[in-house]
Sequence to fold (474 residues):
Amino acid sequence: MSKRLLLISNSTNYGEEYLAYTKPYIKSFLGNEIKQVLFIPYAVIPEAYDEYTNKVNDVFMELGYEAKSIHDAKNESLAVENADAIIIGGGNTFHLTHMLHEKKIIKDIRKKVDSGTPYIGWSAGSNVACPTLMTTNDMPIIQPKSFETLNLVPFQINPHYTDTPIPNHKGETREERIKEFLSLNPDYKVVGLKEGAMLLVENEKITLMGHKTVKIFQCDKPVLEFDKAVSLDFLFK
Amino acid sequence: MSKRLLLISNSTNYGEEYLAYTKPYIKSFLGNEIKQVLFIPYAVIPEAYDEYTNKVNDVFMELGYEAKSIHDAKNESLAVENADAIIIGGGNTFHLTHMLHEKKIIKDIRKKVDSGTPYIGWSAGSNVACPTLMTTNDMPIIQPKSFETLNLVPFQINPHYTDTPIPNHKGETREERIKEFLSLNPDYKVVGLKEGAMLLVENEKITLMGHKTVKIFQCDKPVLEFDKAVSLDFLFK
Fold:
């Protein structure tokens, strides 16, 4: 089976309902055979796992899938092994990464997705599909054991990418922050994934989805901006 | 001698020159006896240390102080020990914290400031005066050995604090991020220090300076907003 990921910038576009714009893409990605998905709520704080799972399950039930949370499983590693699809939602990337290490499920998830189990992530859930959390926008509210994440794709995503600054405010732009990252980590490619944009990864084929362009940042190279007409397969090279 | 710190939100206000609004406060804080200050440029990447030091020295020379950078010192620990004032500039808080650990100068700086040597920080330099880097806005472009920082004051600062969101953009507000931090770290007080605001710390007396109000965040308590008329000494309790 082929490796398949749907990496979504953000759950909710400005002025829209929760996960609204993502629904047709999720349905098309998961298809009609899957009945249950494994949801990983660890980007939020522990007190909020139940509420978060219910909120996500409401959306997935509409689409015909039951979302069962990993935090309700007796054996988390086994829950990953038996999953028909793995879904990691947004929240705080540091807390999510901390928990992935704490629960020791990183290798399990990687093995499972490598063997063809579909993976959907949004926001923090897309970020942790990359080699490290280092391109997150989140506040470091907890120190994870390591910044290493799932490494399901060989490039970095900056979710919620924007070129719009806060009005009358200084502090670095998103582009400046990504360029700082690249100056210390010159071997990476960074995808600036705007709100409303998604990457569909099928083995080493990458398709931009949604209605936004995508920006690609590389060390000492001009910033490139692509629309859906252009293949992004070079991100795997 | 008393412990003295000037903790500045940001180097540069929107539409102003570099460090412009801070100059009268820095002059008044350092006074006329000090001739030379020790500058720590580690919030920027190594290739930029010289340029950064020159830029800061230009401003400090105007005020009557020579800024010598720690990265030019043969023995960094000794440079701290002999400093008449310690200045840490802004940039990336993760890189700064990484270097403070790498150079093993955290205890030296703490001892020196505790014994009365004036400390000035802005942006990342104010954040690292706190117990941890966890309330930074910066991108985690490098993994420091630990999130622990100088612990010169017992509360946290969020520099560049703002209530203004990016227009038509989702993703957490600054207040939401700070509240997430507090839910995992309930014993801290967090000062939202707006651009143009400063805290003058003299032993356990704290005065708000500049022309902005300050917001104080605590776990499970209402957010408080103060102007200069109110004592902030409770931050030490």
Notes: The domain at 4-163+192-212+229-236 of chain A is CATH 3.40.50.880 (Rossmann fold). The mean pLDDT of chain A is 96.
